[in-house]
Amino acid sequence: MTAARKIRSNLLVRPAANQDQALRLRERARLLELRYGAADALAVLSTAIHDIFPGRIAVVSSFGAESAALLDLVAQVDRATPVIFLETGKHFPETLAYRDELVSRLGLSDVRSVTPAAEDLAWADADGTLWRRNPDLCCRLRKVLPLERALSGFSAWINGRKRFQGGARGTIPVFEASEARIKVNPLAHWGPEEIRRAFDQRGLPAHPLALEGYASIGCGPCTFKSCGEAGSRSGRWQGSTKTECGIHRAPWAR
Ligand code: SF4
Questions:
Q1: Whose CA is closest to atom 6 on ligand 1?
Q2: 88 CA → ligand 1 middle, Å
Q3: Which residue out of 138, 219, 222, 245 is catalytically annotated?
Q4: Mean pLDDT of successive 10-residue segments in the chain (254 residues)?
Q5: Fewer CB in 10 Å around end: N or C, the chain?
Q6: How many CB atoms sit inside 10 A of residue 204's CB?
């Protein structure tokens, strides 16, 4: 198969691999939610990392404005927990420096910076401006597919989404099923006050761009300062209807 055909086949929406497996996973997520969904974030993380998915769970972090709160909790549980960072090649230099500062400060010992496949970029984004022409495809090549590869071998992944961020995040449970994995959202019920308190009480450093008014920080070309009451993620893909990069609604992640 040529490189271009292989990439195009990667972009096709795949049918659910196994309906029975998907149903079992949904039932498992439902039972986990019933049992642990009301526990505090540290207890959820400790249970997920040590008891439910030992050696089979990773954290996915953007090292953005609020990421330190989750990473600090993970470090309290186990500094060796794998942390996946999607190095899209489009991050602000401040984010890369902040990643290095947090990794050192928290003692995280297994941070994996995952890059897009060179052949994908050569085929679809040779000049690096795909974000302007087709941001969904850009996110797919630079985030969704690299994450799919990075999560191979893991049964579950942890992320920092919160209900107060609104949109599709407004009703997320603490445990949810993806096609092949359990997704853990230990901060689902946190609000801005809990995040502020975590930074203050734990002496966590702020992302330099958060100090300049960026409430949600992703890739440089697609991140702007948020618009006050429009919500913390209003600065992402400003001027378009796009609100998510796709890693939380990819066919393999549903
Ligand atoms: S956020 Fe923007 S630059 Fe980053 S992968 Fe998505 S479209 Fe591309």
A1: 139
A2: 7
A3: 245
A4: 52 58 94 98 98 98 97 98 98 98 98 97 96 94 96 96 90 91 97 97 97 92 74 63 68 46
A5: N
A6: 18
Please give the Cα distance from 28 to 75 (Å, whole number).
26
* C-beta of residue 244 within 8 angstroms of C-beta of residue 157: no
CB contact at 8 A, 232 and 226: yes
How much distance in Å is there from the Cα of 132 to the middle of ligand 1?
9
Starting at the earlier edge strand, list the strands of the sheet with 156-158.
111-114, 83-86, 57-60, 156-158, 182-184, 175-177
Count CB-CB contacts under 10 A for residue 4.
12
Q: How far, in Å, CA of 37 to CA of 153, rounded?
A: 25
**Residue 155 alpha carbon to ligand 1 centre in Å:** 26
Phi-psi region of 189 (alpha: psi -120 to 50; beta: other; left: phi over 0): alpha
Residue 139 catalytic?
no
Q: How far apart are CA 138 and CA 134, in angstroms?
A: 6
| H helices present in the chain, as ranges | 3-11, 19-36, 41-46, 67-77, 93-106, 118-124, 130-133, 135-139, 145-150, 192-202
